[in-house]
Amino acid sequence: VQLQASGGGLVQAGGSLRLSCAASGSFFTFYTMNWYRQAPGKQRDLVAGVTSGGTTDYADSLQGRFIISRDNAKNTVYLQMNNLTPEDTAVYYCNARQTISRKDFWGRGTLVTVSS
After folding, report:
1. Residues 92, 110: contact at Cβ < 8 Å?
2. Which residues make beta-bridge pairs with 35?
3. 35 with 57: CB under 8 angstroms?
4. pLDDT at 26
5. What pLDDT was estimated at residue 10?
6. What share of the chain is helix, strand, coil (3-state, %, to 5)?
7. How many Å apart are CA 17 and CA 15, to the nearest integer?
8. Which of 32, 90, 110, 115 lies 20 to 30 Å (CA to CA) from residue 11?
9. How many CA atoms lie within 13 A of 87 on its CB side?
10. 28: three-class secondary structure by DSSP
11. Strand, coil or helix: 53
């Protein structure tokens, strides 16, 4: 599967962005879809994930501000980010994890910059 993330950009603190990740190939529903982020000089951390059935999981610090969703008909996963702060500045990566094998696929990432 190939992943193409989009929707990043520059936003002021308090603003919102919606990231999208389109997956090519078949069997999108065989994958749990995740968003990770990596801030400069830091490790890549899980932001949120959604199973093929729609069960979601979030990093504790982000729950309530970020919402992950997926459209299986469009092979696309979204990340709605609200009330952004400069600490949310990072490259955001889309990840697909095959349910049975747990093999990971990664997109290139999209940069989100939040100005104060």
Report:
1. yes
2. 48, 94
3. no
4. 76
5. 98
6. 5, 55, 40
7. 7
8. 32
9. 4
10. helix
11. coil
Calpha distance 74→107 (Å, rounded): 17
Strands (E), 7-103: 9-12, 17-24, 31-38, 44-50, 56-58, 66-71, 76-81, 90-98
- List CB contacts of 105: < 8 A, sequence separation 6 or more: 1, 2, 3, 31, 95, 96, 97, 98
pLDDT digits (tens), the chain, 116 positions: 899 999 999 999 999 999 999 999 878 888 999 999 999 999 999 999 999 999 999 999 888 899 999 999 999 999 999 999 999 999 999 999 998 899 999 999 999 999 99
- In whole angstroms, give the CA distance from residue 96 to residue 35: 9
49 phi and psi, to 5 degrees?
-145, 155
